[in-house]
Write a structure and sequence with these properties.
Structural class: mainly alpha
Protein name: TspO/MBR-related protein
Number of helices: 6
Largest sheet: none
Number of domains: 1
Pfam families: TspO_MBR
Shape: elongated
Distance between the termini: 52 Å
Number of strands: 0
Subcellular location: Membrane
InterPro entries: TspO/MBR-related_sf (IPR038330), TspO_MBR (IPR004307)
Family: Belongs to the TspO/BZRP family.
Helix content: over 70%
Length: 175
């Protein structure tokens, strides 16, 4: 039996919802973080965006890819015939939601609250969770296509953003 409610599976049974959920949550989080920062700094919300406009689009695309991997994971869960394969798919989906939560927490920490070190700790946890999720999803034998096509770009993007976050923290410590 999975620790997740049925809703967590149901939303990922529909590929459009599975892809759309992390994208919509990311957009809402971006807007909220920008508003928090604009109130804290007095700058307009548009002035608080990432340094390059492509940053947000890459983040959304990578998040959508993991959403499709979650869809494939639920398909594996539904097709599972042994308790071990049910548990494996369930564990992978738990990791998916854990990394989604960590991903949604990063922006309010980094942008909204200006807590760069806490954001770096969050990003390291996110990277570890995402890599573990990718490995677990790849181990599911019943997916019609390898989830690596969807999870590896996401993990690479998280590694890159963790590196950037680390550079910001090091630069702050030098001053």
């Amino acid at each position: 039996m999975s620790p997740l409610p049925e809703f967590a599976f149901a939303v990922n049974r529909n590929p459009a919802l599975a892809v759309g959920l992390p994208i919509v949550l990311g957009i809402v989080g971006n807007y909220a973080s920008s508003e928090i920062r604009s109130k804290r700094t007095g700058q307009a919300a548009k002035a608080t965006c990432p340094p390059h406009p492509a940053f947000s689009y890459i983040w959304m695309a990578a998040s959508g890819l993991t959403g499709y991997a979650a869809h494939l994971t639920v398909r594996s869960f539904d097709a599972a015939v042994t308790p071990q394969s049910v548990d494996a798919a369930s564990d992978a989906l738990v990791l998916y939601y854990a990394q989604l939560g960590l991903q949604l927490l990063w922006e309010p920490l980094f942008i909204g609250a200006n807590q760069k070190q806490a954001a770096l700790a969050n990003s390291l946890a996110l990277l570890g969770t995402a890599v573990t999720m990718a490995i677990k999803m790849n181990d599911l034998a019943t997916t019609p296509i390898s989830t690596n096509w969807f999870t590896v770009p996401y993990c690479a993007w998280i590694a890159y953003t963790t590196y950037l976050n680390g550079r910001v923290v090091l630069a702050q410590e030098k001053h």
